[in-house]
Amino acid sequence: MTAFTITRRRLMQSAMIGLVCHRAWAGSRCGEPQTPDNNQPLGPFNAASTAEEVTAGLDLTGKTALVTGCSSGLGLETMRVLALRGAHVIGTARTQEKANDACQTVSGKTTPISLELTEFDSIRECASIVKSFDTPIDILVCNAGVMAIKELRIVNGVEMQFAVNHLGHFMLVNLLTDTVTRAKNGRIVILSSCAHHGAAPHGIDFDNLDGSKSYSPWDAYRRSKLANGLHAMELARRLKSTSATANAVHPGTIKTDLWRHLDRPAPDGKMNKSIPQGAATQCYVGAHPIPAGISGQYFADCNPVIANPIMYDKKMAKRLWVISEELCT
Predict the structure, then answer these.
(1) I need a labelling partner for 11 at 20 to 30 A (CA). Which of 18, 192, 230, 273 fits?
(2) 3-state SS record for the chain
(3) Beta strand pairing status for 158-159 and 154-155?
(4) b (16+ CB within 10 A) / e for 80-117
(5) Which residues participate in catalysis according to the annotation?
(6) What is the pLDDT of residues 187-230, one digit of tens each?
């Protein structure tokens, strides 16, 4: 094999990876401005706002927050800013060591807990520890996630991105819902993505949750993010008789460890926010007074925006809920 052949092959592989990345976001409206939902209260912040800016002047003393995926990126910044404003933040990471290290970098009151979203026993243990504190959870941010895993991996009977991004958080939220509803205005913030647009028009492939019929890294990611949105919408309906809210959030396209499964570094040209800007929307929805009464909505750029109609499909959301419950037993 000649050096030219090797170089040519690598160039072709690089080009294909770039094409896959482009197609992953093409048509998903990730690069376009989000359309505000004028039927909801809009705030003064935008895509350029940072987590510190949207929480400026807020006193979260006495409130308790839980942030999954606190070891880096948006989770770490969200934990840092909520603690900065006085909240006691429970930060979870895949290992106790990672959670400890992250919490030690943050000023304010934090509690590290290990949470491996692929392991039901770990989720139950985390929820049990949180409940043992006997304090309401005012802000629950489902931030952790994985993206574009190249090879099919099966976890708890389903494809790994669905397992981590949706199913693990679904189980955690269900175990902690009563703790959130004990708060005066408990808020559940579930990270979705503009990539959910790419899951339309078919939505969740209920007959292929394990990827055995077909598997595409980006299609699986899109559907997991649609599942996050559907989860938030159905959860909001189930919380109507309480003072708690549930919303889905698109943080933006940010260079974080989420891109670690790609064969090459995250494409800088596709990034549209810094980490402080990316954490802003979840901090806004979780802590700011303006969205306090908003539930069952999709947020981006620190405001409620219009999601793809498929995210509002009640029948699909209810089916996802029932199947998720079955998978968690």
Answers:
(1) 273
(2) CCHHHHHHHHHHHHHHHHHHHHHHHCCCCCCCCCCECCCCCCCCCCCCCCHHHHCCCCCCCCCEEEEECCCCHHHHHHHHHHHHCCCEEEEEECCHHHHHHHHHCCCCCEEEEECCCCCHHHHHHHHHHHHHCCCCCCEEEECCCCCCCCCCCEECCEEHHHHHHHHHHHHHHHHHHHHHHCCCCCEEEEECCHHHHHHCCCCCCHHHCCCCCCCCHHHHHHHHHHHHHHHHHHHHHHCCCCCCEEEEEECCCECCHHHHHCCCCCCHHHCCECHHHHCHHHHHHHHCCHHHHCCCCEEECCEEECCCHHHHCHHHHHHHHHHHHHHCC
(3) antiparallel
(4) bbbbbbbbbbbbbbbeeebbbebbeebebebbbbbbbb
(5) 215
(6) 999 999 998 998 988 999 999 999 999 999 999 999 999 999 99
- Measured distance CA(294)–CA(83) in Å, rounded: 23
- Which residue has tokens 């933040």? 89
Which residue in 259, 280, 256, 255 sits closest to 269, CA to CA? 255
Q: Which domains does the chain have, with CATH numbers?
A: 3-327 (3.40.50.720)
Predicted TM-score (pTM) of the model is 0.89
Estimate the crossing angle of helix 169-181 against helix 120-132, to 10 degrees.
Answer: 20
How does pLDDT run across 79-116, given as a tens digit for each residue? 999 999 999 999 999 999 999 999 999 999 999 999 99
